[in-house]
Amino acid sequence: MKEREFNLLEEPWIKVLDGECRIHEVSLTDLFEQAHIYRDLCGELPTQDFAVLRLLLAVLHTVFSRYDIQGEDRPLEDPDDALERWQELWESGKFPGEVIRAYLESQRENFYLFHPERPFYQCEHAKAGTEYSASKLNGNLSESKDGHRLFTDLSGKAKEEMSFAEAARWLLYVNAYDDTSAKPSRESKEKGVKLPSTGVGWLGKLGILFVSGDNLFETLMLNLIMQDERGELFEREKPVWERTEVADGERIQIPFPDNLSELYTLQSRRLYLKREGQKVKGYFLLGGDFFDRKFKAGAGFVEPMTVWKNPDGKKTDIYVPRRHDFSKQFWRECPAAVLGHKENRQPGIILWIKKLENLEWIKNYELNLRIVSVQYGDKNSFVTNVFSDSLQIHASLLSEMNEVWRNAVSDSIEFCDEISNKVWRLAQGINLAVGGSNKTKESKGTAGIFADHVKADFYNRMDSPFRRWLYGLAPEADSDDELMNKREQWRHECVNIARVLGNEIIRQAGTAAIFGRTKSGSGDDKKSETFSAASAMNRFLSELKKAEER
After folding, report:
1. pTM, whole model, 2 decimals?
2. In this predicted model, what pLDDT tens digit does every residue of 272-297 receive, in sequence order?
3. Is 379 helix (H, G, I), strand (E, B) or coil?
C-alpha cells in the first residue's frame, strides 16, 4: 500500500503575508485560527492566491452551513439564519478555530496530498493521460513540450522539481486555469472516442472579481456569501473531498452546481502528481468535469465572482461570463463590473456586499475590489499573461439609496472615454501632418498606430487621478450638491490632462508639422488633402472647451 504523506491540515503549504510584510507558509488549520492576524494570501501569482481563496471559502461554507460559531450542530434552515450566523462571525473578529478544526479533523483522510486511494484533488486514472514535467505545473514557468520561457525566476534543478508545499499550491492553480492542451487518454484514443472539449479550467473562463478586507479574516468573510441572488439559501454544501467515490473517468459534462463549495472545488482537470522521494517531478493530466457556460436568466447565477453578459444584447435571456479586458485599467470596467450597466449583470459578490451595506453591517467600510484573470493565446492552448488590478471605493457607493452617485461615476467614466477619443483624433492628425500614413484595407497606418499609443498614454496619466477621485466619493458623508461639485472638478481635471498631453505631442511634432502638408489625390474624383498640426490642435482645443462646458 502506498503511504499517506503530507496532510494539508497540519503541513505548512499556504503562503500568507503578516502585518510586517513577512511571508510565511502555514497549514490549512493554522490559517483559519490566525486569519485575523495575517494580512493576505501571498503565493507565487495572484491567480494562484485566488484558487487557494476558493478552497478556503469552500471549507467555510461547508462548516457554517452546518454548525453555529459555538460548534453546535445547527444546519441553516432559512435565509435569516444565514444572515444572523454571518453577523455573529463578523462581529467576533476572528474565526472559531476549534469549530473549523473539528470539522477538518473529521475529514483528515481526504486531505493527504499523497494517499493510496484518494490523494487530494487527484485521481490515479489521470496516469492514462498526458505526462508533464514539474516546469509545466509551475504557473510561473508554464512551459510546453515544444517551447520554453525566455525569462523565469527558476533555473536548473529548481525547474525540474518542486516541494510538496509548492506542488499543493500549483495543483489548485492548474485545476482552475489549465489551458486547452490537455490530451485525451490512451484508452479513448484506442477506442476512437471523440470527447467534448472542456475548454480552459473554469476560473480561466471568468472575469474574476472579489473583495479584499483589512486582513485575511475580513477578506474571507466579505466573500462568504450566505444567500443567493434571490435571497434564498444555497442547497446542501457538497465539497469535493466529501465525495464517497473518487472520479475515475475522463471529462464529463455535469449540471451546474447548486451550492458554492461544490462549485469552488470543481475538478476541471483530472490530475495525478508524480513524485520521487521528497520532491514532485511532474504530473499526469486529463480533462475533467465541465458544464455549459451559457445560463438562462432566472435559472440562478450561482457563480458569484464574475460579470455576466448578454452576448445578444437582451434579444435573448442567455448570459455568459464576461472576461476582463487586459488593455483596460479596472476602473474603466467599473460600470459593467461593479455598478451594473447595459447588457451586463452585476456579479453576485457585489449584490452580497450591497446587502451587507444596506443592513449597515459594513457601514462606512472602505472596500478594496480586486480582479484577477488569465490571458490565453492561440485558441487558449497556452497562457500568455496573468492580470490583476484593484480599486478602492466606499461601500456606501453600492447602497440602493445612492443610485445618483453611481450614475455620476458612470457618467464620469464615459466622459473620460469621450475625451480619449478626441485625444486619439488629435494624435492621428498630427502624425498625418508629419508624413504618416492613413488607414488602408491592408494596414492600420502609422497615424492610427501612433494615435493608439497616445490614447494609452492618456489613460495611464488619468489612472492615479481618477482612482483618487473615485475613492473620495463618500455618499454617507457628502451631500448631493457636493457630488455635483466633485463631478465638475473631475471633468476639469480630465480636460486639463488631455490639454497638457496635446501640447506635448504638438511640440514634439516640430515646426514643419504646424504648417502641415498636402497629399495629392489619385483618380478623377480624388481631391487633395491638407494635414496640419495647427488645424488639428485648434479643433482639439475647441472640442475640449465644448465638452467641459456641456
Report:
1. 0.91
2. 999 999 999 999 999 898 887 777 76
3. coil
